[in-house]
C-alpha cells in the first residue's frame, strides 16, 4: 500500500486522536481510509442522483429545474 505523509490542523488532529482513544479505530490510517471510502460512496450516490435528475429534465416530463424540484420536495417534507 502506498505511504503518504499528510499534515492536519490542530482541531482535526485532536478529533482523529479522540476517535482512536475511544477505540473507534486502531490507527489514524485506518480512520482516514474509512473517511475516504465514505466520501467516495457519497460522491457516487450524488453522481447517480444528478444523472437521474438530468435524464428526467431532458425527458420533457417536467420543465422544472433541479432547484425548483428541490424546493418543492422540501416544502412537501416540511408540510
Total number of distinct structural domains: 1
Number of continuous helical runs? 3
How much helicity do the residues have?
over 70%
Low-confidence runs of at least 5 consecutive residues: none
Specify the structural class: mainly alpha
Name the overall outline: elongated
* Biggest sheet architecture: none
Indicate the mean pLDDT.
Answer: 90
Kindly estimate the percentage of residues that lie in beta strands according to DSSP: under 5%
Output the radius of gyration.
20 Å
Describe the secondary structure blueprint for this structure:
Layout: H1 10-21, H2 28-59, H3 66-78
Looking at this protein, list some descriptive labels.
mainly alpha, 79 residues, 72% helix
